[in-house]
UniProtKB/TrEMBL annotation:
Keywords: Cytoplasm, RNA-binding, Transcription, Transcription antitermination, Transcription regulation, Transcription termination. GO terms for molecular function: DNA-binding transcription factor activity; RNA binding. Residues 170-234 form the S1 motif domain. GO terms for cellular component: cytosol. GO terms for biological process: DNA-templated transcription termination; transcription antitermination. The keyword Transport does not apply. Residues 70-103, 407-472 are annotated as: Disordered. The keyword Protease does not apply. This is Transcription termination/antitermination protein NusA. Residues 70-81, 407-449, 456-472 have a biased composition (Acidic residues). Its main location: cytoplasm.
């Protein structure tokens, strides 16, 4: 039967989705930091090994063997005094630089001294000296250990979240609307929280906390505050992935999607093709009594979807793309890539569409500029002059403002993490500690967990300025 400590570790592993090894590494790093705080020196390289089965602990002082150097007395007495912080960096002369790196007696051992401990020691070897285990740690050491555990577990969670959602980049996932931060929507994806910018929100759609929506994972990056997951409801790829999900023939490659043109929230045109003459690609997408396409339309919030048959012949493809209008003829100018189509007068409005939407989408779908002319008359409409429905003369969203709102949303998530950590159970002996002690413990955390990346540096800074709340 496992010990209570081991059971607690297993519970953390299960609840936070971390590996057992990463949690053990965190605990051992915290114990090493606690030892440095009460019994060692912050510059020491302490290695800890903890056995949760019997709560046994082993500690080693780890040093690297370096060549013999002439050591000035002031190095021992001043620069590496265990009760002082390291001196401020000073500008070194060329002579100092030629001498090579300075000797650090807390992390290094000269070759002569190393051979006294190990006869065959060589430069570059790492010597581990086992230390006596203290009977107990002080309150400050315990607080330091607690802060190290909190910080490192949060970092491990962020890395797990990043790795999980990086694999889903380019996929469509179901999410839950969490809240609105300015014009930015935060979407809960389970373990991670994603950001949906204004340009990625469908015009006319309203997002309320608790709403379940499908989103396209545009990108997943590891930022200074953790994973940055950007999702979209307006990307054409969302339509593509929904077709793959709902239509088996597209999922298995029997029917191909050749192109998609979309005006989110209003209308999409999807060009499909199939090499098997026995399969109707349009019918496969629509489904019996329109069941398949209606499911997709429902996921898109009622957005209309036109299924167009792709044709390698550019003229036929342009004719098909202007559906539901019936086109009489098409003239192609290959050099300027302009298609002039002729329709009957009663088909003119259908060909152009409301606000020029139909001809505009057809032009995007086929990658041809399209002019629409009435039979026996002049050109009545063009994809070039069609104004997009809902467009404005200037951008609706200023990029700088959006970036600021995104940063605010991410900062709010970090603050929630800190609050959650602060609300954990605290030992009674620690509850009465003053704020100065807490800040001192945080200084120790910064010393023991030196940042190795921009994210680590930001986390260390956040930990230093956001101490845990004290309980009365």
């Amino acid at each position: 039967m496992s010990s209570p400590i081991e059971q607690a570790i297993r519970q953390i592993v299960e609840e936070k989705g971390l590996s057992y090894e990463s949690v053990m590494e965190t605990i051992e790093a915290a114990l090493a930091a606690a030892f440095r705080k009460d019994f060692g020196n912050r510059l020491q390289n302490i290695e800890a090994k903890f056995n949760p089965a019997d709560a046994s602990l082993q500690l080693w002082d780890v040093k690297t063997v370096v060549e013999d150097q002439e050591l000035p007395e002031k190095v021992e007495e001043e620069e590496f005094d265990e009760f002082k912080r390291p001196p401020k960096p000073v500008e070194e002369s060329e002579e100092d630089l030629d001498e090579g790196p300075r000797f650090n007696p807390k992390m290094e051992l000269m070759l002569t001294d190393a051979k006294a401990l190990k006869a065959d020691a060589e430069i570059g070897d790492v010597l581990r000296t086992e230390l006596d285990i203290p009977s107990e740690f002080g309150r400050m050491a315990a607080m330091t250990a607690k802060q190290v555990i909190t910080q490192k577990l949060r970092e491990a969670e962020r890395e797990v979240t990043y790795n999980e959602y990086k694999e889903h980049e380019g996929d469509v996932l179901m999410g839950t609307v969490q809240r609105r931060q300015g014009r930015v929507i935060l979407v809960e994806l389970g373990r991670g929280t994603a950001i949906m910018r204004p340009d990625d929100q469908v015009p006319g759609e309203r997002y309320y906390p608790g709403d379940r929506i499908r989103v396209y994972i545009m990108s997943v990056d590891l930022g200074m505050r953790g994973p940055e997951i950007l999702v979209s409801r307006t990307a054409p790829e969302l339509v593509l992935e929904l077709f793959k999900t709902e239509i088996p023939e597209i999922a298995d490659g029997t029917v191909r999607i050749e192109a998609i043109a979309r005006e989110p929230g209003s209308r999409s045109k999807v060009a499909v093709a199939c090499d098997d003459n026995g399969i109707d690609p349009i019918g496969a997408c629509i489904g019996q009594r329109g069941a398949r396409i209606q499911t997709i339309i429902g996921e898109l919030g009622g957005e209309k979807v036109d299924i167009i048959e792709f044709d390698a012949d550019a003229g036929l493809f342009v004719m098909n793309a202007l559906a539901p209008a019936k086109v009489e003829s098409v003239e192609l100018d290959e050099e300027s890539k302009v298609a002039t189509v002729t329709v009957e007068s009663d088909q003119l409005s259908l060909a152009i569409g409301k606000g020029g939407q139909n001809v505009r989408l057809a032009a995007r779908l086929t990658d041809w500029r399209i002019n629409v002319a009435e039979k026996g008359g002049a050109i009545k409409g063009s994809s070039e002059g069609a104004v997009e429905v809902g467009s404005k003369p200037t951008e609706a969203v200023v990029e700088a403002e959006v970036e600021e709102e995104v940063e605010e949303a991410q900062a709010a998530d970090v603050a929630e993490d800190v609050v959650e950590a602060a609300e954990g159970d605290v030992d009674d002996g620690l509850e009465d500690e003053e704020t100065a002690d807490e800040e001192s413990a945080m200084d120790a955390v910064e010393d023991d967990a030196l940042p190795t990346s921009a994210m680590d540096e930001a986390d260390a800074e956040a930990a230093a300025i956001e101490p845990e709340e004290e309980t009365e």
